[in-house]
């Protein structure tokens, strides 16, 4: 690992803990606070999941309550900071791309409040920009996903739920709220958010708004990083009604907008080939309407969700303007059959309609677009045949209809219909009270997805286009005794016929990500420590490849480590802690002449202290020092680090911030 003398203390601590790391962090168990302090322990979140004990959740990654709260005035990098297998590169929200086990989240099904999200956008921007401040829970199901995960779960899924009125109000409280104020000195970034909630006679309402403004930040070398200023607005409206009989109806609507001067390619650093001359006007809109019977049981436990999501990116340059819009309509209708207290079967039907379109000066009067429609039927059984054995198995069948763009054509656009069967199986076996073994496999039909609309600048030949199919394998073990939880897992994901383009011809390649995850958790009476480690490699057509050739499928992540520590100091009403983010040097052994064979490693130390005065338990003040040693680096998941001299988008240097939370 590359390092300097200033970093030796953090490296020593990391090395000592790494020698004990043998856990899969998704199933960790440590100290659960009972005094109002939010825990870093994700097991608390897992216990709130209705299927948390099912075999298909054995590899799930739950983001802890403390991580969600501490990322509320930050971004997705802050949200996943303690989870090594989830990498976030890109430094600013509009450019942040998320990779799970080295796989781009474009290859996972993403759901917010039950509605499917757009998994396609301009390749120099993020398809998954979300505000952590409006999140209640976040879960990642890497690799093997159940049949009720919906279409497109080639390499797993990500599930996000937004906050409810009950998350803001205390028992018996009819009206209340929360406000947050933040300031970061690196970039002079100011933030404020306000949440208001009310409930009466079964009705609930929640309003949330957030505003972040600031200037370009400086990196660890003191250089101003152009195109990184904050100008973000986010909002959420949530309405719900629950009858005395338990019939719950819920509407959720959210919007996130980011408009600022960026580099022409927002996920690259400023360079002569990438000038700071383009305004990115980005907007993400999500609507969801849901019904569930909260008292459902027996053979009648129905739920239904109708969703809409849209990403709009307006690229306003010095010579021309382009607008790309991707949108998704989705619907799911399902019923859960309760065979016994521990055995269930969930069956239903779902629908997804995606469209990607482009307009603007370049296209003139043309409006090129692609559409992909999928109808699926599914059934997922979650069973516990014995006290020591849990099994989850499912099947789904999807029908996909794809229509290609016909820019410049006078005839009929390209159309292709395809269909296929998907299956999954997950098993967990408890060898004894301390040791459990687990394994999972899935084979997934992916149909044909829509493409990046900013690439609709030529008339494509679709004749070689094929529907995608993925296979996922995971094998792991977990050991728990006393305050320790240890474990390990190995994984492999293969996606055949991944869509690509060479000039005017649509082509394909076979993608693979494989590797392993390790970690360790130890909890004590007043604190908690968690270490996670991942080692992944990605391949195209069987060969290691650079970040360019694996674009939109994955990234060369290599070995990444994350360590979190939290300690309560009740005598001073304090909680202190921090985390280390580290990436090891990564030699990919490439045969490509234009890419280096090694990615440089880094170590970054971040510290925090939270003060919650005993006399004002509705107030929390949090101070942070991130990148304590002022390291100049680009996150391992940021594009281009494997190309010599490439202008990567650097992360902020040393940053001191202050956040105040007040509940009322």
From TrEMBL:
It is found in: Cell outer membrane. Keywords: Cell outer membrane, Membrane, Plasmid, Receptor, Signal, TonB box, Transmembrane, Transmembrane beta strand, Transport. InterPro entries: Beta-barrel_TonB (IPR000531), Beta-barrel_TonB_sf (IPR036942), Plug_dom (IPR012910), Plug_dom_sf (IPR037066), TonB-dep_rcpt-like (IPR039426). Residues 217-628 form the TonB-dependent receptor-like beta-barrel domain. Residues 61-156 form the TonB-dependent receptor plug domain. Residues 1-26 form the signal peptide. Its main location: membrane. The keyword Metal-binding does not apply. Transmembrane segments: none annotated. Belongs to the TonB-dependent receptor family. PANTHER family: HEME_HEMOPEXIN UTILIZATION PROTEIN C, TONB-DEPENDENT OUTER MEMBRANE RECEPTOR. This is TonB dependent receptor. It comes from Phaeobacter inhibens.
């Amino acid at each position: 690992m590359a390092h300097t003398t200033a970093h030796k203390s953090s490296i020593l601590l990391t090395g000592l803990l790494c020698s004990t790391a043998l856990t899969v962090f998704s199933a960790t168990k440590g100290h659960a606070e009972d005094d109002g302090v939010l825990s870093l322990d994700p097991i608390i979140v897992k216990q709130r999941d209705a299927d948390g004990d099912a075999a298909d959740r054995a590899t799930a990654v739950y983001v802890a309550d403390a991580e969600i709260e501490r990322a509320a005035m930050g971004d997705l990098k802050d949200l996943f900071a303690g989870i090594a297998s989830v990498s976030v590169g890109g430094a600013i929200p509009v450019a942040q791309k998320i990779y799970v086990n080295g796989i781009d989240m474009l290859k996972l099904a993403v759901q917010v409040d039950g509605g499917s999200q757009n998994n396609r956008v301009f390749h120099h921007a993020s398809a998954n920009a979300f505000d952590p401040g409006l999140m209640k829970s976040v879960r990642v199901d890497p690799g093997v996903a159940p049949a009720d995960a919906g279409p497109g779960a080639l390499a797993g899924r990500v599930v996000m739920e937004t906050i409810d009125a009950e998350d803001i109000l205390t028992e018996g409280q009819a009206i209340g709220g929360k406000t947050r104020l933040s300031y970061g000195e690196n970039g002079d970034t100011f933030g404020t958010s306000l949440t208001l909630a009310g409930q009466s006679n079964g009705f609930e309402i929640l309003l949330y708004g957030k505003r972040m403004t600031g200037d370009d930040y400086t990196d660890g070398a003191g250089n101003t990083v152009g195109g990184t200023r904050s100008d973000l607005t986010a909002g959420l409206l949530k309405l719900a009604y629950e009858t005395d009989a338990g019939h719950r109806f819920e509407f959720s609507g959210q919007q996130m907008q980011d408009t600022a001067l960026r580099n022409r390619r927002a996920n690259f650093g400023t360079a002569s080939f990438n000038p700071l001359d383009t305004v990115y006007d980005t907007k993400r809109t999500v609507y969801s309407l849901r019904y569930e019977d909260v008292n459902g049981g027996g053979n009648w436990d129905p739920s239904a969700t109708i969703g809409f999501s849209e990403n709009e990116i307006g690229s306003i340059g010095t010579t021309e303007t382009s607008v790309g819009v991707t949108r998704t309509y989705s619907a799911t209708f399902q019923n859960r059959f309760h065979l016994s207290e521990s055995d269930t079967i969930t069956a239903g039907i779902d629908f997804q309609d995606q469209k990607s379109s482009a307009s603007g000066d370049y296209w003139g009067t043309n409006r090129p677009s692609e559409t992909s429609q999928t109808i699926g039927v599914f059934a997922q059984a979650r069973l516990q045949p014995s006290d020591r054995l849990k099994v989850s198995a499912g099947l789904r069948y999807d029908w996909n209809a794809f229509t290609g763009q016909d820019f410049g054509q006078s005839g009929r656009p390209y159309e292709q219909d395809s269909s296929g069967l998907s299956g999954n199986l997950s098993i967990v076996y408890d060898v004894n009270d301390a040791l459990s073994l687990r394994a999972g496999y899935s084979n997934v039909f992916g149909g044909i997805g829509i493409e990046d609309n900013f690439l609709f600048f030529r008339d494509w030949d679709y004749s070689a286009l094929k529907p995608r199919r993925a296979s996922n394998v995971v094998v792991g073990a977990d050991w728990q005794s006393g305050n320790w939880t240890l474990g390990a897992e190995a994984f492999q994901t293969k996606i055949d016929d991944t869509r690509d383009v060479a000039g005017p011809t649509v082509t394909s390649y076979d993608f693979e990500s494989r590797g392993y995850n390790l970690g360790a958790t130890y909890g004590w009476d007043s604190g908690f420590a968690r270490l996670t480690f991942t080692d992944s490699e990605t391949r195209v057509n069987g060969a290691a490849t650079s970040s360019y050739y694996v674009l939109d499928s994955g990234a060369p992540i290599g070995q990444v480590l994350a360590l979190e520590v939290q300690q309560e100091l009740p005598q001073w009403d304090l909680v202190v802690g921090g985390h280390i983010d580290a990436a090891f040097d990564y030699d990919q052994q490439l045969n490509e002449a234009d890419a280096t064979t090694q990615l440089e490693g880094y170590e970054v130390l971040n510290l925090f202290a939270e003060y919650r005065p005993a006399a004002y338990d509705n107030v929390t003040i949090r101070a942070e020092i991130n990148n304590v040693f002022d390291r100049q680096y680009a996150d391992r998941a940021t594009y281009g680090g494997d190309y010599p001299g490439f202008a990567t988008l650097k992360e902020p240097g040393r940053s001191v911030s202050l956040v105040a939370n007040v509940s009322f």
